[in-house]
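Review form for a predicted model. The reviewer records the input and the model, then writes brief findings.
Reviewer: anonymous (R2)
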Amino acid sequence: MKSIAILTSGGDAPGMNAAIRAVVRTALDKDLKVFGVNRGYSGLINGELFEMNRESVSDIIHRGGTILRTARCEEFKTEEGRKRAASVLKVFGIDGLVVIGGNGTFAGAQLLSKLGVKTIGLPGTIDNDLPYTDYTIGFDTALNTVLDAINKLRDTSSSHERVSIVEVMGRDCGDIALHAGVGGGAEFVILPEKGYNEEEICKNILQGKVKGKLHSLIIMAEGVGGTDELANKIEEVTGIETRATKLGHIQRGGSPSAFDRVLASRMGYKAVELLCQGKTSKVLGMKNGKIFDMDINEALEVPRSFDEELYTISKIISN
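Model under review:
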C-alpha cells in the first residue's frame, strides 16, 4: 500500500471532516500518499483528485459539512461510469479508497471492489439508518441540534399555550425523532416505523389541558408526512392553536459534537490500518463502544431493527 484516496458522498454529516483529518494524518504517519476526491463519485469519474498533506486538514475538526464537498452521481450507477472511476484511480496510482457516507455510498464502494479497488467504508449519515452499527457519524450532532430547537420552541409554545409539531429528518428511519422525543420530553413521537392515530393524539392533548398542561410537543419524522395536515386537524378538534415547524437541513450543519469527532477520528484511523493490512470490502461500525469492521456485503444485508424498548419508554414517561 503506497497511496490511498478519500471521498465523501451522499448527504453531508457533521464529523465527516474529523474523519477526513484522521484518514489523512494516519496515512501520512505511515508514509502513504493521500489524495482527496472532490464531489464524491462524480469527482472520481471526472478526475477531481488532489494530493493532501497535514496542512490540508488543519483547523477542520470542528467544522461541519465536508471540505471535499459531496454530490450525487447518476453516471456512477452505470457499469461504464464505475469502470471509468476505477481507471482514474489506477492512473493516479492509488491502491486503496476510503469512502464516507450512507447506504448509497457503501453500495458504490461494493461495486468498485468488484472491479479490484480496495475499499473501506465509514458510516457518515445523520439518520443513523445503517443497522449494522449502533451509531453513524453525524447522528449525535444532528440530535443535539434538534434538542436545541425543541428547547427554544418550548419557551414560545408554553407562553402561548400552543401545540407544537416539530418535523425532523428521517425518511425511513425514525431514530432522530425517537431519541429527540425522549431527550426533549415530547408528549408524542411519530415515526415511520409506527405511524399514528389522530383521534388518540387529540384526546390526549385535551386530557393534558384539563390536567393543567400549558403546551404539548409532538416530534414527527419526515418520512411519515402530513405535518401541516396533522396541525390543522389538532387545531380543528381541540381548539388549541397548533403550529408545525420543519427543521429541514439545519440538522445537517453545525460543529460536530465531541462524540462525533471522536467516533470519526477512531474510524478514520482504523480505515487506514485495515488498508495497510491488505483488507478490503470492509465497513466500520461501533458496537458497545468498540470500533469493529465487517464485510460490506454482510453489512448491507443486515435487516433494520426497531428499538421497541425506547419507544415504550417514550410513551410511558410522556404522560
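Findings: Residues 17 and 66 are 5 Å apart (CA to CA).
Further findings: The chain has two domains: 3-138+256-301, 142-252.
Recommendation: see findings above.
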